[in-house]
Amino acid sequence: MRRSLGRVPLWSIADLFSKSKLLKHGQINVAGELGFCRSIATSVGNNVHIFYLECGAILGYGKELTTNSIQKQIVDALDLGDRGRASNLLSDLGHANKSLRAADFVDIFRYCARSPDPLFAMEIWNVMQEKQIPLNNISCLFMTQALCKGGYLKELAVCKQNLSAVHEIWKDYIKYYSPSISSLKKFIWSFTRLRDISSAYQALQHMVALALQGNTSITSTAEGRLYSSRLDIPIPSNVELGLQRFDMKEFDEQFDPVKVDPCTRSIEWSTISKIGKEVDSSGIVGLDKTKCVPAMKVLRPSFTDVIYACAQNQNYRLAEQLMIQMQNLGVQPSSHTYDGFIRAVISGRGISEGIKVLEIMQERNLKPNNSTLATLSIACCQVLELDLAENLLDQISDYQYQHPYNRFLEACDTMEQPERAIRMWAKMKQLKIQPNIWTYELLFSLFGNVNAPYEDGNMLSRADSAKRIKAIEMDMTKNGVQHSHLSMKNLLKAFGAEGMVRELIEYLHSAEYLFYRSNTYLGTPIYNTVLHSLVEANESHLAIGIFKNMKSNGFWLNAATYTIMIDCCCNIKCYKSASALLSLMLRDGFYPQAATYTALIKNLLDDGNFDEALKLLDLGSSEGIQPDVLLYNSILKKAYEKGRIDVIELVAEQMHREKIEPDPSTCHYVFSAYAERHFHNTAMEALQVLSMRMICQEDHAFDEKKAEFEDDYILSEDEEAESRILEFFRGPDENIAFALLNLRYCAILGFPISWSPNETLWARRLSTNYDTIKRITH
Fold first, then answer.
1. Which sequence spans correspond to the domains of the chain?
2. 227 φ, ψ to 5°?
3. Is 623 exposed, middle or buried (0-12, 13-18, 19+ CB in 10 A)?
């Protein structure tokens, strides 16, 4: 039903009509009159459409509009509450076979401003954007009014990530209105959701200025809600506000963490640690005590929004500045504020500083949000601090998001600590946290195979593995989660690691059927996983059969597929087939990588052709292939089996010059080659040198490593010394644990430990021989 018009001051109408008559006679500047129309429109509120009928006609807007126009039909439909018809008519208008202008939408915008109807105003704007029709001044004004009155200002364009649109509205808003606390709050919300931190900070500072001027006029209701005694209707500004957009370069320089000296940073951090304490009379300018409580409730959410944006933009310096400003204003940060601040601190200063902020919260008797604890736990998982991460997750209650728990499971997988993962999985069950596909992908990776990577499967471990996989799949079915490519890949990989060939093939066929039903391609990575497992299990005939099927059915093969099959040729002792596969690989546009050279070299070594293998190694290096320890170990293994100490010494020296860190297998092959031929002293000397190189590759750093490891680990007579060494196996420094055990073994047998490994007789002899051989061969 059409709303009745309110009473309008007669002087306004008379003044408007007198001005419009002058305008008709050319006595008033059009641009100036447009500004006058804006002023009148805002002053008279809902009656704005009366005056714009006259002014709009004079300025040329709506010349083609008639009472039977689509615009009028849309307005009538809206007035009758028939929004479906109005939307259909708007769509018709948008697809009209003529060149549309902003003027063709003015009447509808006007109705939306009067009603107000912010949602339909945004619908009009969407149509205009699709047709690439720019808003004119009147349309923009009407739309701003519709959004302001309807309370939808902060949602505008945010859902579409349209930052430029929000800036246009902001520009028009501050040009024609004096911003209120409420409207600034909405703009801050919009800017922060669009990660425009400079504009959000700018608007926040004007909000603070209004609060300090006592312009909040905030009152608390009996129900605890806040309302403003000022009308939240934009009031035209008589002067141009000095709200200039920040220069982003200048803004970044102002809050550049690199330019802050440690002393200043320490002072600011100590100030932040005092947030929440009683502010003394030391000259800090804050809000009036009588207005402090309501002002805090008004300012705190906007400060929190900007601090969250700082976290998203990884601008922890500005977040610290805002926390200090809150302190100075007497605005008490909430747990939600600290949640955003901790996110910002972690991004810039790391997890240890985030924990310090958590301790500050505890001193203030503020209970951290579950999301805060989750954020800290995730950060701990990223640096593999599993004890702290687990402790933080244990403090969480009534939290249904899987992400922090999945991150913990992921870290357990990286650290190869499935026992921790079992506890966390049990906690997820206890808290009734719904697992997602990522959870199950990690569970298959963690629990699918029982043995460690360097152990072979047996009858008992295979039965246990099958039982675990079945339990995980049953849980997936119960929770309605379908297999992803990665979950299926991890499952098949687990079967392969345990040597369960029959189950591997059965699940491959099940996966083909499952993904075929969902019109999904099974994927080359899954087939590669199966091929690799079959080659490792020496099931060459099965691998060749699957490869032929892939070729005949037009499956897309990649470099990894060809590399696996070249490796398969080692099992069947056929270098000719390996060469043919290499030709196919090159024809399909794939260049050999380190793994490909490793497979080819293994084929040559099986024939005892060490000279060609070493030439191929040099060829790979000349083509920019960076050899890895696996490639070198494949040569060392065959050389050890064939008793070729000359090859072993050449490869060991080349590894050192290429700065390839030895691993336990390297030490085993070199040591065993000497020891089995009764060169015991040389074997121990080589073991020491290679162990030292596992700890460090740089000569200048060995003194530091000596101070770190010698007394407490290698030479210590403490019974717990070896237990301390074994602790390294729990982290990513597994090689250091092997090296320390080797060196301790040497010391126990009475061999002196040299911390200048490259100066030993063995190392110098290898270096001299290497230079001689390379001189001769080149």
1. 179-235+244-368, 374-434, 656-777
2. -140, 160
3. exposed
Segment 93-106, tens digit of pLDDT: 777 656 778 888 88
Identify whether the C-beta of residue 298 lies closer than 8 Å to the C-beta of residue 327. Answer: no
716-748 pLDDT, tens digit each: 887 787 788 887 776 667 888 898 888 988 888
Alpha carbons 74 and 78: distance in angstroms, whole number: 6
Within 8 A by CB and 6+ apart from 463, the residues are none
C-alpha dist (Å) from residue 706 to 578, 701, 740, 761: 47, 9, 11, 20
What is the spatial distance between Cα 547 and Cα 176, in angstroms, rounded to a whole number? 72
Tokens encoding 388 = 């702290």
Fill in the DSSP letter of residue 103: G
Determine the pLDDT at residue 265.
47
DSSP 713: I
Phi and psi based region of residue 744 (left: phi greater than 0; alpha: psi -120 to 50; beta: remaining): alpha
CA distance 677 to 690: 19
Contact by Cβ (8 Å): 170, 283: no
pLDDT band at 768 (very low <50, low <70, confident <90, very high): very high
Q: Which of 182, 166, 175, 172 is nearest to 122 (CA)?
A: 166
Segment 511-533, tens digit of pLDDT: 888 888 777 778 889 999 999 99
- Sort 132 into a burial class: Cβ within 10 Å, 0-12 / 13-18 / 19+: exposed
Neighbouring-strand partners of residue 219: 227
State how far the Cα of 444 lies from the Cα of 457, in Å rounded to an integer: 17
Amino acid in the structure at residue 373: L
Structure tokens at 733: 């420094």
Q: What is the pLDDT, as a whole number, of residue 512?
A: 86
Specify whether the CB–CB gap between 102 and 139 falls below 8 A.
Answer: yes
Q: How far apart are CA 268 and CA 345, in angstroms?
A: 13
**Could you say which DSSP state residue 729 is in?**
G
Length of the chain: 778
Strand stretches in 99-153, DSSP E: none
Are 666 and 632 a contacting pair, CB within 8 Å?
A: yes
Provide the H-helix boundaries in 623-748: 629-642, 645-657, 664-675, 680-695, 702-709, 721-726, 734-748
- Amino acid (one-letter) located at 756: S
Position 130 pLDDT exceeds 90: no
Task: Transcribe 401-462 into DSSP letters.
Answer: --HHHHHHHHHHHHHT-HHHHHHHHHHHHHTT----HHHHHHHHHHHS--S-TTS---HHHH
Cβ atoms within 10 Å, residue 152:
17
Identify any residues that bridge with 228 across adjacent strands, giving them in sequence order.
Answer: 218
pLDDT at 161: 55
CA distances from 353 to 311, 316, 361, 388, 665 (A): 14, 11, 13, 14, 40
Is it the case that residue 225 has pLDDT exceeding 90? no
CA distance 778 to 776: 6
pLDDT score at 67: 33
Exposed, middle or buried by CB within 10 Å (0-12, 13-18, 19+), for 397? exposed
Average pLDDT score over residue span 250-273: 45
In this model, does residue 448 exceed pLDDT 50?
yes
Q: Residue 57 corresponds to which amino acid?
A: A
Residue 38: pLDDT over 70: no
